[in-house]
């Protein structure tokens, strides 16, 4: 049921809001499954393109298949140009709290900013809105069984969970990026503030967990991502193609890949670099490609909904990111038997790739070395095949069965 009301905040601003009454009419068997539990996954958005959305819905399906009742909650709707198509066959509920993104606040720097009346009104309005949306979240959480689990995938979403009533529930806070990437961002202080009292904080690798423990977080554990898919038909590695799949954003380092490719392409004029993805840097990257004289050896493929097919048509995969967590696309490439060259930008990269055995790892930002390693694999078909086949075998240690079992063990531990 939806009720429309007008409210006036403390700054005198009147706004119309819609308050949603959340009710669950499912039976106990439908809600909890055979021996399952209620699991609520909370993210910034339910449907925004990106790794965390993919992870959330992957885990929601896996948990549902094992008899758990799953509810995926997003704080805000995804922007139109960043919205993922989730399909119509989701075996779990999804809810988005806000109808539109709340106002973005400016940092409070200086006396003038603190006394700015307009900014004070915006801040008061936003805080009132947060309380309203947190109340919706509380209504949802009150409908689940005591002892059930709330998994918060991003610290921004945790700001709303912290305002909601989570009594009787187990709360897990996750960081899907490396410790060093987090520390270099504004998220670091928010993680320290909002995750200090959760029942368990999870990061992607043991190395990162140890770094958080040094920050006096003694409730940290490591939980890697599950393998997104394991195709029946791997790549034959016969196409003269290097594949990159990444959002066209500065963090993903496609500009670095183009610099490296400018050294490789003249030596291998029959090879092509296929760049899959879209984003705000697309025009700048295409201009860089033209300046480097690479228009004949780089194919801009746009976004793809067929990642397995894109990888199967390639013989090498390039991960040129400036920052990563536990890159799913790296796992996908290895599962497809495509050997990878990646910058060593996170413990997750080093954990997935064993350098020289199932792929090649390059010092961050070293485009000359990246080019050399690409050239090495392009020039040596036997090495390419050996690493590709080894990658497909090794990546199975992150099978869905293995990772879901680790989650089940964690749930049992939190029950004690």
Please tag this protein with its features.
single chain; 416 residues; alpha/beta; seven-stranded parallel β-sheet; six-stranded parallel β-sheet; 16 helices; 17% strand; globular; disordered N terminus
Q: Segments where pLDDT lies below 50 for 5+ residues?
A: 1-34
Largest sheet: 7 strands, parallel
Distance between the termini: 38 Å
Number of strands: 15
Strand order of the largest sheet: 5-4-3-6-7-8-9
Radius of gyration: 23 Å
- The helix tally amounts to 16
Give the helix proportion (percent range).
25-40%
Assembly of the depicted chains: single chain
Which structural class do you get from the secondary structure elements? alpha/beta
Q: State mean pLDDT (0 to 100 scale).
A: 89
Q: In percent terms, what proportion of residues is strand?
A: 15-25%
Shape: globular
Task: Please outline the helices and strands.
Blueprint: E1 2-8, E2 14-20, H1 28-32, E3 38-43, H2 51-65, E4 69-74, E5 93-96, H3 110-115, H4 117-141, E6 149-152, H5 155-163, E7 170-174, H6 179-183, H7 187-194, E8 200-203, H8 206-213, E9 220-222, E10 241-245, H9 254-264, E11 272-276, H10 282-291, E12 298-302, H11 307-312, E13 316-319, H12 328-335, E14 340-343, H13 347-352, E15 360-362, H14 367-379, H15 381-394, H16 400-415
Parallel strand pairs: 3-4, 3-6, 4-5, 6-7, 7-8, 8-9, 10-11, 10-13, 11-12, 13-14, 14-15
Antiparallel strand pairs: 1-2
Helix pairs in contact: 4-5, 5-7, 9-14
